[in-house]
Design brief:
The complex is a heterodimer of chains A (369) and B (263).
Chain A (H helix, E strand, L loop, with lengths): L7 E10 L2 E11 L4 E5 L6 H9 L6 E6 L2 E2 L10 E4 L11 H11 L4 H14 L15 H13 L5 E5 L7 H18 L3 E5 L2 H7 L2 E6 L2 E6 L1 H6 L4 H6 L4 E11 L2 E5 L7 E5 L8 E6 L5 E2 L5 E10 L3 E8 L4 E7 L9 E5 L5 E5 L10 H5 L1
Parallel strand pairs in A: 3-8, 3-9, 6-7, 7-8, 13-20
Antiparallel strand pairs in A: 1-2, 1-4, 4-5, 9-10, 11-12, 11-14, 12-13, 14-20, 15-19, 16-17, 16-19, 17-18
Chain B lengths: L5 H29 L16 H8 L1 H33 L3 H16 L2 H15 L5 H24 L4 H9 L4 H30 L2 H6 L7 H11 L4 H28 L1
Helix pairs in contact in B: 1-11, 3-6, 3-8, 3-10, 4-6, 6-8, 7-8, 8-11
The chains are: A alpha+beta (369), B mainly alpha (263).
Amino acid sequence: MTGSGQTIAFRGVARDFGAVKALLATDLDIMAGEFLTLLGPSGSGKTTLLNIAAGYLAPSAGRVLIGARDVTDLPPRRRNIGMVFQNYALFPHMSVFDNVAYGLRARGVPRADLERRVEAALGMVRLGGYGARGIRQLSGGQQQRVALARALVIEPDVLLMDEPLGALDRQLRQHVQLEVRRLHRQHRRTTIYVTHDQEEALVMSDRIAVMREGRLEQIGDAETLYRRPDNAFVAGFLGESNLLRGVVTAVDGVRARLRVDGMAGEIAGAAAAGLVAGTPGAALVRPESVRVSPAGRFEARLVERVYLGELVALRLALGNGQAVVCRRFARDGAPDGDRLAIDWDPGDVRILPDANSAGTTSNRTEEET
Amino acid sequence: METRGIGFRLAVHGLGSAVLAFLILPIFAVVPASFNHGTFIRIPPERWSLRWYGRFFADSEWLSSLATSLEVAAIATVLSVAIGTAAALGLARLGGQLRAALTGLIVAPMIVPVIVTAVSLYYVGRYWGLTGTLLGLAVAHVLMCLPFVVLNVGVSLRSLDPSWLRAAEGLGASPVRVFLTVTLPTILPGLFGGAVFSLITSFDEVVMSIFLAGVGAKTLPVKMWETVRLEFSPVLSVASCLLIVLTVALFALFRLASRREAS
């Protein structure tokens, strides 16, 4: 298990299903050893892109390259990929050992070598000694790890994972997330991971590609996407966000101003790329950037106080009805009364283009699940 | 049921028992009849004996008809399983209406009066020189056996998760390997069930066999039918008994196998 996998590149890859454009022409380069997550709601094209990488789906246009090899016209069995499915897709009539050995047998690996590699793979996912078990005797988390071992034992050029933790309960999901991350840190195998769960994306990925309606909205590491989203959709999809929607009044290089109905004055902030004055925009203020302060510029009414352990979330409403969430440390105590003054640092505000403001909300993930 | 009166329950159970008796009682007549010593059948026999069994197994005509039956059933079953499995796999890939139409076509021989199929096959068989041959009769039986295989394998296929096939293919398996290691083990119960029903169906079949048997492919049921027109010998009840035993044994085997599969 030394090889770290290959690069994989998509060049103008697109896919239609009849009149439906599931994936618009997409260019994407994934480095060798990189862990890239495709993040987006269902119907965003992320699974389509993954299936095109695996070869289960032919693109309507474009090429797929693994390393220097153009694999666009190769069937999955000739691509040397490892795939982990959402429902595991383990073979129920075979033992754990035979499941993991399947890909090696298909490659004609000699018996002694095969046994050694299967045992090593099972040890890697901490299932050493489970080889003789039947699949139905395993828990969901164990089955997921067998699926992972089965995909990794063939030393694939690219590991593809399709919402592999979707069927696990929350606690187990976090455990397996860390397990997947540990394996990736150890072996640095090129991985494309599909999910609609932002937390999974944040925990595991080197880079995250946010997708919507068959398009790549933005690609970058977690911090870039969180701190410098390109548009309101990305901001809403990754992390909790306050989006104050209005019209962009001025763009001046790296700064911009936004007017929001019912709010006195204008909101200033850092300008996202492609911002045009006079078009719809949104000011992004992360909940941790909202302060409660007697000298605050904005008056707000306390709607609800939600205790989250170390943090407290204050759900507030501005004078114009705009909802704002403020998150702060619980040890800072509860504010007095339900009339508050709040403020934020202009340096923590980002003005974003908001093309389809109607379709985006800050809780897309919850709509999906 | 519990709210119904005792009278109602008695009536239901009484009627049910009567129907069962009507279906099963002939067996209880045929079996003792085969153990008669005398030339005339009496139930129960005045004297028990294996005399007519001896007569059956000493008669080369009866033995060869039994052998013919077994051969035809074997050929028909192998052909039905091969064609039927392929058909079921193909049907599973088709969309709704086309699949329904083709399934209907395959099942049609179960619905069309057998005598109509038999007469048609007689003409075709004569033209191709297939009447009176083992192969010709076996091919005719395939028509009757095919629905059992297609339906049984079709049911098994529903438990085949398409993602298993994708996983196997992704792991590098060729289509043949995917079939042998994933598809076949999954549909095996249905395949076995279809094979047993094919054997029983072919072994029992008499209408088409009478038309197509000629002298070259005289099966046990045909020989029985010919014999009964000339004389009513207790050997006939021996042949009937053999048919019953073989059919029941095959069915029991199938039940045992499917129970083991379920556990």
